[in-house]
Amino acid sequence: MKKFSKWFIILVSLILVYIFIIEPNIIIVTRITIESEKISKDVEEIKILEISDLHIKNFGVREREVLFLIRAIKPDVIFITGDFYEKLNKLSEVK
């Protein structure tokens, strides 16, 4: 029974680490190309960037990585959807 308890505690601990530490810091970039005959041939490529569910608490490593990715992608338009910040106390850091 002690062996089961030990492994159960390890499993629950790993799940909690993933939920509260790893998953919130994952940055996912998905590139999608949309082509349509309804768009004039004269229109050049437009890069649209959508940022969603950042839940910013402070300006740290993850947020700097997001800025690095935005600069690298060089979007023409940025849409911010989902939850952008979470009880942000240091708004000046984001500006």
Straight-line distance between termini? 54 Å
Overall tally of domains: 1
Order of H and E elements = HEHEH
State the strand order across the main sheet. Answer: 1-2
Q: Count of helical segments?
A: 3
Radius of gyration: 20 Å
Strand content: 5-15%
Helix content: 40-55%
Largest sheet composition: 2 strands, parallel
Structural class: alpha+beta
Mean pLDDT: 83
Low-confidence stretches: none
Task: Give me some keywords for this one.
single chain; 95 residues; alpha+beta; two-stranded parallel sheet; 3 helices
Question: Care to describe what's here?
Answer:
The chain is α+β, with helices and mostly antiparallel strands and 95 residues long. The chain has one domain. It is built from three helices and two strands; from the N terminus they run αβαβα. The protein has helices spanning 2-22, 61-73, 91-94, and strands spanning 48-52, 77-81. The chain has a two-stranded parallel sheet with strand order 1-2. β1, α2 and β2 (77-81) form a beta-alpha-beta unit. It is elongated and about 70 Å long. 0% of the residues are buried.
